[in-house]
Amino acid sequence: MLSRKLASSMASQEQGDTYAWFSQRAWVEIDLEALSHNVRQLKQFLSPRTQLMAVVKADAYGHGAVTVAQTALQSGASWLGVATVPEGIQLREGGIKAPILILGAAHTPEQIQAIAQWQLQPTIGSPKQALIFSNTLENIQFGSSLPVHIKLDTGMSRLGTNWQQAGEFVQLVDRLPNLHIASVYSHLATADSPDPSIMTEQHRRFEEAIAQIKSLGIKIPSLHLANSAATLTNPQLHYDMVRVGLAVYGLYPAPHLQNSIDLKPVLQVQARVTHIKTIAAGTGVSYGHQFIAPQEMRLAVVGIGYADGVPRNLSNKMQVLIRGQRVPQIGAITMDQLMVDASSVPDIQEGEIVTLLGEQGQEKISADDWAEKLNTISWEILCGFKHRLPRVGVM
Ligand SMILES: *Cc1c(COP(=O)(O)O)cnc(C)c1O
Q: Residue 292 sits in a domain of what CATH number?
């Protein structure tokens, strides 16, 4: 692993010899081998007739959309899912040729034109949206038929037409010029819950909608319903394709799904010790002096903060890994830096690597640990790393 290589080259440098290593005060490591492993595991878990869509919205949950998309496609995924038109364009500009479904809403003539131009595939969630698409494509003299994906609301109460109107909705879209229906899909609200009752009801509604559509004699090439949690829960939910985000990145949507397949976390967050000092008992640390040293301690400043994706609400609650040991973070986390109590590593060096998320030796800190402390979900933790830090691929 790169981190270890960097760590050992660091260790061989005399302190004060050079500050070249400060050029990377913090970075995100993306383990593409782990990503490929996760995609292969998922693909093996599916029946051969079920396609795998890698959901790469929000810059691949903070992992880097183009690189993730390329690796996922090489490892068994055949579709990509994004939230917005610009996210789809970014993939096309990165050279990605695979079909791309836009999971979010697009309405404006500019968006529709971009969809047509970049060969993206939109979600159509209402009759009104379908008409806007058809008319706009007419106006720009599109000249062929755009594949669209019909979204039904079976209980998420987000995008989509109510499942009870599935028949008339699909019929309307089916009759419009310039469009053809590539799939019908819905999204589950509670697939990560150990209690399957709401998911079962959504599944029943989806089946009812499909029956309605079939009774009108309309053939739908593809049906899909499952996110990561549903994919790992029940093969009956797989249909023709599954839309997997979180599991591709190596995290489990819920603790009760941890025995389903073997997943490896893809993202690690590393930073460097940028300064070390000894502080006396009674010394206040960071903004607001929320932490007062109870005794003399060895304080290390680490070059990462909340603008990089470390939530400020973890102040005084999180730990980091230094030389395979857990070390407590102290004082308010600031925008670009945070402090740790490194008293347990008395000979700690400036430039030394600190792991915020990831593994060192026997110790491991995961996005799930942070999510639990913050009463949120791992999805949000991962997305926090999409802005500022450079990404380094690790093979
Ligand atoms: C984000 C998203 C997914 C992926 O969800 P995960 O829980 O991360 O697998 C699937 N489908 C839709 C419609 C989504 O918005």
A: 2.40.37.10
Residue 30 lies in a domain: no
Please state the atom number of ligand 1 nearest to the C-alpha of residue 228.
9
Where residue 195 sits, what CATH number does that domain have?
3.20.20.10
Q: What does the pLDDT look like over 64-106, one tens digit per residue?
A: 999 999 999 999 999 999 999 999 999 999 999 999 999 999 9
179 and 301 assigned to the same domain: no
**Does the CB atom of residue 55 touch ligand 1 within 6 A?**
yes
Q: In the 3-class helix/strand/coil scheme, how is 320-350 assigned residue by residue?
A: EEECCEEEEEECCCCCCCEEEECCCCCCCCC
122 lines ligand 1 (CB under 6 A): no
3-state secondary structure of 133: helix
Residues of the domain holding 310: 267-394
Q: What is the per-residue DSSP string for 66-131?
A: HHHHHHHHHHT--EEEESSHHHHHHHHHTT--S-EEE-S---SHHHHHHHHHTT-B-EE-SHHHHH
Residues 171 and 298 in one domain: no
Pairing mode, if any, of strands 179-186 and 223-224? parallel
Residues 246 and 294 placed together within one structural domain of the fold? no
Which of 227, 261, 383 has most ligand 1 atoms within 8 Å of CB, for mutation?
Answer: 227
Question: Considering the domain boundaries, does residue 209 fall inside one?
Answer: yes
pLDDT tens figures, 93-151: 999 999 999 999 999 999 999 999 999 999 999 999 999 999 999 999 998 999 999 99
Q: Which of 153, 243, 252, 382 most suits a substitution to test ligand 1, by most atoms within 8 Å of the C-beta?
A: 243
